[in-house]
Structures are given as C-alpha cells and as structure tokens.
Amino acid sequence: MIRSDLLAKASGATEFGTDLAEPEMLWAALVLAPIAHGRIRRVDLSKARAMPGVHAVVGAEETARLLGPGAGDPERPLFPSTEVRYRGQPLAAVAASSLAEARAAARAVQMEFDPLPIAGDLEEVVAEWPGSEAGSDPRMIAHVRASNGDLGEEFRLAEFVHAETYRTNGVAQVALEPHACVAKVDVGRWFVRTSTQTPFGIREDASSILGVPEASLVVEGSWVGGGFGGKTAALVEPYALLLSAATGRWVRLSLSYTEEFVLGRSTLPAVVRLESAVRAGRVTARRVRLLLDTGASLPGRDFATGYAIGFLLGPYRSDAFDIEGYAVRTNKPPFGPHRAPFAPQCSFVADSHMDSIARRLGVDPVAFRLAHVWRAGDVTPLGQAVGPFGLAECLEKAGALLAIWRRELPTADGFGLGVGCGYWSTNAGAGGEALLRLSPNELTIDQGEREIGSGSVVRGLVAVAERVLKIPSDAVRVGYSDTSRAPFDSGVFGSRTVGALGQAVEKAARRLATELGRRLGTSDPATLARDDDQLVAISGAVRRPVRELLTSEELRAGGLEFPGQHAAPPGRIDDSRVGAGTFYPYTDFTGAAHVALVHVDRATGAVRVLRYAAFHDAGVVIDPATFRAQVEGGVAMGLGSALTEETLWGPDGRLLNPSLLDYRIPTLGEVPPIEVHAVPGHPGAGPFGAKGLGEPPIIPVPAAVANAVADATGARVREMPLTPERVARTLNLLASGGTGRG
Amino acid sequence: MGFTLVAPDQPKEACALLARSAPGEISVLAGGTDVLPDVEAGRVRPSRLLSLRRLPWRTLGWNGGSLTIGSTLPLREIEADPGVRERIPGLAQAVHAVGSLALRHRATLGGNLGRAAPTSDLLPILLTLDAVVNLVGVDASRSVPVDQFVVASRSTTLRPGELIASITIPEARPSQYVWQRVRPSNDISQVGVAAARASRPPYWRIALGGVVPRSIRLEGAERLLPAVRPLVSELEAAAALAARLAPFATDKRASEAYRRQLVGILVRRAVASISPPIVPPVGVA
Ligand SMILES: Cc1cc2nc3c(=O)[nH]c(=O)nc-3n(C[C@H](O)[C@H](O)[C@H](O)COP(=O)(O)OP(=O)(O)OC[C@H]3O[C@@H](n4cnc5c(N)ncnc54)[C@H](O)[C@@H]3O)c2cc1C
Questions:
Q1: Are the beta carbons of A589 and A683 closer than 8 angstroms?
Q2: Domain A342-427+586-735 belongs to what topology?
Q3: Contact status, residue A356 vs residue A712, Cβ threshold 8 Å
Q4: Looking at CA atoms only, how far is residue B34 from chain A in angstroms?
Q5: CA distance A725 to chain B (A)
Q6: Of A100, A366, B215, B267, which one is least surrounded by beta carbons within 10 A?
Q7: Is the ipTM of this complex over 0.90?
Q8: Nearest 10 degrees: CA dihedral of A212, A215, A218, A219?
Q9: 8 Å CB contact of A608 and B184
Q10: What confidence tens digit (pLDDT) does each residue in A631-667 have?
Q11: Which residues pair with A424 in a beta bridge?
Q12: CATH 3.40.190.10: does it fit domain B57-278?
C-alpha cells in the first residue's frame, strides 16, 4: 500500500507553501536589519516607495497607522522603532507587482543606526563562571533551578568527582520548503493560507501580534514541505496580512532560503558543566549548570531553559542533584524548537558523561547505564512518576547487539562501537478533536491538522480508524478545513499527533462501531468492509450495506457523524524540588537506545558511521511502515547534528553559512544501513497503547556516535557536531599528553 | 532575471557572438552549475546566455599516451571512462570528488577551469599532469599550460571572444587525488592534494587545492622525492616541508592549523598510494 499523499508529492502535483499563488497577487519582500545591534536613527522608506511596481512599503509608523494606535503586542512589534536586536530583524516590508520589484524596493530603503556593542558569544559569559552570581547579570534573561538530597554529603563521601564541560552548537531547521504564505484582508476577515504545523497556533499568534481578534482571523494550512518545529509560531503571516491590509490585494510572502536560515528559528549554542560524585560504582550525586544562548528572545518568554534542564540528568536515577540553567540573551535571531528541542544535545551531554564515567571506572558502559536507568515505577529527579517505560529493555537489546558487532569488528585501527540513550515525553496539550463521518462508500476523518511529512496525519489517523473498524485504508479519507470550520487541535508537534488526535479518532470510531452494531441489531460493535465500491457493516453473521443503515437525513447531510475528543491528564512534578523557573510535566515516557559502529581516521579526524541500529519503545506500534520511516529519518537527521550540522556566527552577529553548501545536512552517502527494532510491551496513553515517535529517533544519535568515537580512539570529544577538525584537535591533544581521555 | 538563450553550433560563431558583446551582457553557459546559481542570486545579470551545448566539444580521445577532453563533456563521462580510470587514476578520482553524481552529469571541465575557483578539485590534478588548455578565438587558436591559464579566483588569461575548446593531458601518469571535507559527499574540500609521477624530471608532481588565490604546485616537496620509490624518511621530509610551506589561511571551512596538519597527511597518502615508500631494514638509517 502506498501512503495516500506520496504519489502527488513524488510527481510534483502537491501544492506546498512555496507554490501558493492567487490571481493578481502582490509579491512581498522584507527589509532586514544589516547590523546586529544598534539604535535606529532613520528608516527612510521614501525612495523605496518611488520604485517601479511598488504598491506599499510599511514600517513601524505605517503599521501603527494601519492597525490603530497601541494595537498588537508591544513586546513583539512587527518592526522595531528604536532598537535593532539582531542582524536580519525585519525593519519594513514591501509589496510590489513582482518579486524582483519587491526585492529591488527593499534594497532601496535607507537606514542609519548608532551601533551598540554586540553580545554574541556564550564563551564570554562562560569565562566568568563560576564567579559572579549570574542572577543579577542583565544578559541572563531566565533562570531555572531544581535540586534534591544532600549534595554536600555525597560529594564529601565520593571516591572521585567526574567533572566535564560540554558544548553544543546551533542546528538550523532545514525544512526543504521555507516559510511561505498568501494572505488577503477583506472587511473584517483576515485570511492567510500558510505552511504551518499549527494553524490554530498561527491564529492565536497573529491575533496577538496584529491586535486583531481571533474571531476575525482565518488560517488555512497548506501542505507542509517539512516542519521540525520552525513552523509552530507566526513568522511570515503577520507581515503578509499587514501588507494586504495596506493594499487590499492578495499578498504572497515567501522567505528566500538565505532568509530562512536566518529567520527560520534555529537552535543556538549551549555550554554545560557537569560534576558527578561516584561511589561504589554508582553516581550518587550530580551538579549540572547550563548556559543556553536564546538569541534575541524576550525575557520571560523563554520556555527553553526549564525544558533543556529537564533532559540534562538523562534517563538516570539521581537522588541527590542540583541543576541550574540560565538563558543568555545575545544579538542573534530568536531561536526556536527543533525536533525534540534540546534533547539530542542534552542526550549527547548526559550520555557522553555516563559513558565517560563508565570508562574511567573500567566497567561496561551498557551495564553501567543499566544500573542507573529509570524503569517503570521509578520517580524522575523532578519527582514525576515513570509509567510504562521500555528503555532498560532497549538498552539490554542494544548491548546484546553491540556484543555481536564487537566480535565482527575489523581489527584494523580506528573502528569503534558506542551506545546512546535518549528519552522523551509527550504533551497531548489542549484538545485533540476529530469528527468521523461515514457515508455509504467512504469514511472521512475531519480535523484541523495538515500533514507535515511524517505521516502522522494522513497515515497515523487512518491506521487508528483501520484498527477499530477493520475498514480498508483506501476507503478512509482525511478531511481538512481551515480554523473557521475545523475542530480545534493544538498542532502537529511534540510527537503528539497520533497520541492525542489519534485517541480522538479512536473514541469516535468506537462510538461509530457501537452505533452500527446497534443498527445491525446486535450488541457487538460492527466492523466495515468493502463490497464493490460500497461499504458494508458487519457484526457476527449480520452484514448490511452502510447505505441501508443510514437515515435519509444522514444521507442528505453527507453521512453519520461522531465526534471524538481527547485531553491528556497532565503529569505531576514535585514542587519541593523546584527552586526557580518552570518545568514541564509531560507524560508518556518513551525511550530509545541506539548502537553506532564508526571508523575514525586518526590522522584527519574524519568519522564515518558504517552501521547503525535503533531500539525504540514506542508503545504499541500501530503502523510498522511509518514506524520504520520515522526512525530511519530521525537517525539520518541525527547523524547531521552529530557530525556536520552547525550554524556559524561571526563576531558581527552575521550567520556565516546560510546555505545548503556550507550548512551541511547529511546526504545519502553519509547514512549507513539502519536496523530498526520496536521494543513492545510498554504501552502508552495513545490509541491502542501507542506512544509518540516523531521526535525520539533523533535523540540518541549524537551520543551514540560520540561514544563510538571514544571507543575507537580513547578520545572524548566534548563538543558537537564532531567535525573532522574537532575530532582531530581532541586526538592531537591526546597525542601530546592532554586530557582527551575519559 | 530575464535573459535569452543562444546556442550556436559553430565555435567561430560562438566566439564572434562573445567578441561582439559588452562585458557583463553575456554569460557563457556550459553545465551551468556555477553560472545558473549566480544568475539566480543576482551576482551576474546577463541579458543573454551563450550555451555551448551544440558545439562539437563533448569528446574524449587518446592519441598514444596523450588524452584530449572536450571542454563541454560532462564530468561524469570522464570518471566513468575505463581508459581514464586505468591510465590516469588521479584524474578519475579528482573528477569523482566534484559535488554529487547529479552535479557531475551536468558540470564540465571547461566550466571548472572557466570558474577558476581556489577550491577546485580539478586544478591540482591538472597541474600535476601538465595539462594544456586549448583555446579558440575569433581569429586564432592557441594553447596555454594550465599553470598559466588560471591566474586567481575567477580570473584566467582568457581573452575577449575566446572559449576553452578542450584540455590536453600530454602524458598518462600514475596519479592520485586525495581530499578532506567536513561532509564526505557533496562538499567543498578543505584541502585537496594531487600527486603524479612523470617520466622525466621533476619525477614527482605534487599540487595543492584549497589555497587562495589558486592551486599551486609544491615544488620544494617534489624535489625531496627520488625518481621512483621514496624512502619513508624522504616522504616524511617532503610531507613536512609541504605542510610548512603551504600558504594557508583560516576561513569558515577550516582553520589554518588544521589545513597544515591535513597537507602533511594527504601528501604522504597520495605519494604512498602511487609508490609505497621503502621501509629501510632495521639498523639502516
Ligand atoms: C552543489 C555544488 C557542489 C560543487 N562541488 C564542487 C566540488 O566538490 N569540487 C569542485 O571543484 N567544484 C565544485 N562545484 C563547482 C562547479 O560545479 C564546478 O566548478 C563545475 O565544474 C563547473 O562546470 P559547469 O559546466 O557547470 O560550469 P558553468 O557554470 O556552465 O560555467 C562556469 C564558468 O566557466 C565559464 N565557462 C564554462 N565553459 C567555458 C568554456 N568552454 N570556455 C570558457 N569559459 C567557460 C562560464 O562562463 C562560467 O563563468 C560545485 C558546485 C555546486 C553547485
């Protein structure tokens, strides 16, 4: 069976955001700040207005005029009027008859600034560790802390303290399709068709940015050419809407790929310092400090630090700990969530650290992890109960496979094996609502999400209906409508779609099955099958065409309808352990253990991943093909973060590699054969016991690769990605008697 | 971004068209893998593109030990040619290093030389092979050694109205091209090293890519190697000298220090794969 969206995608027929067009539409371009930090002296739009083909040029003043004084969120102005905070910040926007004219006019805007000092480098802040108390430092815009147990006592009793500092770099989104939309404002109706993971989220965001009531805003999702978190917040939409309000015309705004790299919400660098007290072969206490570059994000708007901090202890028991994180404001663009936000980076740190302690103790790294790993019934460091959780079993299986691969390992220099662990938890969030409609020959799932590529909507939801009703998948259609008509759902992110929306489908399908059973005159739920192009309902020996079971009103209305809702009960954190900031009590823990076989060229530092295996607890796998595809894709993407992908920033706040030539995602040449294994038996809260899988596969990859490099060479590379130069530097240090080992 | 495409089928006609056009008004289009991104990004704004696809230059031919490759032959056909692979392996390796398979189905040798990028993977091997660039103009043809043809990044000794017709490699030489990149496939080399053994002195030719303003021969290192098989110590000395003298700089792709480290390694590997160095018996210096 071929997934329903794939033929159109492979043949180029699918209309993605960048394909959107309307007759007579205008083309938009943004005017971007050419400096990273400065006071605005002048943004003069007059020359741009006089350029050929230009219909409107809007800046801060025009925006106030168009939207009304005081409209919109003063903390998130469309255009700043006094200060530029990052290079690439939009200062004005142009609508013109063609893209070339819009861009030419954008170039004609004249700007003057009084430069201000650029805060770009996390290392400057690190240099002051552990001196001044960070709390009073104006660069620190958020502080989170959690602790438990008697740290001092454990560190006193420790046989040794293992202390390391790790660094991670920024990863860009690199969805093949940049942010793109078309918008049209008519009296009282602000409409935007856009490529987004969260149509309802865009509505909420655009409403607050523009100061337009949600009831007047309609967001329609287009097909999405990849969304990894970058398409969960309004970006191009408010500008396109504003320009349409200014011109009365359809306006299209699509970022160029260079702009996408700058504005598309990359993640940014982080530095982590860890100290672990070790006694009798166990980690007894941990102290962790995180500095997270959050770019020009706003104070108080930072969700990230608590989120990241949660992952830094890894999926390992810790009775005594003190973790603390600071968000550092820099003159880089605001950052955003990227597939499993911070988890691959934190897993790289936490799991490299565990591996490093195991090697220092001279014990098997897998057995060492097994002695610490959470199991069902455990309590996380933040006091959350761990439900069904198969990570220990994933680890055991990974360890067994590693032992086999070790026996087959070439004896030549430079080969090595490593394991990486990761965990995730999902947030079903508000809502999860779907409407099932059964007509004589088709079952429609009406809902408010667009497929982002993973298959969670077009395949995941269908697989749920298929399981409940036994209906052939090609008789199920996923319907979509815009935010004015679709049932609410919070979006395709956080690995939540199948878990939340899938449950809504499951509930609606069960009601439908029961009702059909009733109409067949049995007390059992019915199933559906196809007879020619008609659907028939079956219960035991009773079998009747659906057409005959529907009332004439139902037939007229398009079918028999059943809604289903889902709202997940939140998890609980032990507040007595929280010192500052917000932590997120997500539920449904999923775990994965990966095995990497690498070859390291000791002279050049080049790392090749030759063989790879992934063991995943995804609860009950409801669609094996999608499961495999998600894991393979996640591993491939993780190999990029592990080995080659990083955003490079100049001292002037410029992104130095905003192109696919210098920002290196893996090609097929870098992706080895991947074994994919499901580890069942630990059901989640999703339909039939499914757990989320969108994000987990990317998480353990950097740790698995780094641990394999350590195994191959004895060198611990404490910064990702592990580019040849970084690996070579660590190996050189090792050769000269430095401290690469650990 | 509008332009018209012209595709003459006579070299003289193409040259005449070029000669008649004002600079910047016309761009030569071979595979287009450099030119089209430039047009797209607005780095050049020609009103006409002169396509070379109908010119009779998609050729590859041997004349005894000498090989002539037409300037518009896609790179893929060079690396796939059994004769090239067997007789000038370094050329096949260098061509294979360029971009991706898809790119090599379009990109050409003429385009690579026309662009004259300091990061070219082809210039180092062509330098070690003493390649000659055959040019045609409106009135005359001439041949220029590749060493004199490429001046600096995007700068060649091509005269107005001239086109590269072909490249001649006078002698098939045992040769090797080795390179290092952040990402093994489809990336720009941080450093590339080509080596070839010639039938006359200097017997060893070693050239370096990834240096600004263009690839160079490492003549000092070449001189430290004997005619046939070097001793390990001779190879080490040559590699060390190459690393010391290479005119490297730091950029976003690599630091100077790392490039220096790479050159030593790559020189050693390139030479050793052509001619494994002699390990002296124990007790002999
Ligand atoms: C993704 C990507 C990866 C790349 N990777 C590599 C790499 O790994 N190694 C590497 O060396 N290069 C690489 N390149 C650069 C480029 O593809 C090569 O240099 C290629 O050989 C250019 O050939 P072309 O036929 O496409 O040239 P074109 O783009 O058609 O032309 C390039 C230039 O040469 C001129 N020109 C072309 N033919 C002639 C002629 N017959 N006479 C006179 N002038 C001529 C053109 O006017 C133009 O200025 C890469 C490029 C891309 C886009």
A1: no
A2: Aldehyde Oxidoreductase; domain 4 (3.30.365)
A3: no
A4: 13
A5: 6
A6: A100
A7: yes
A8: 80
A9: yes
A10: 999 999 999 999 999 999 999 999 999 999 999 999 9
A11: A590
A12: no
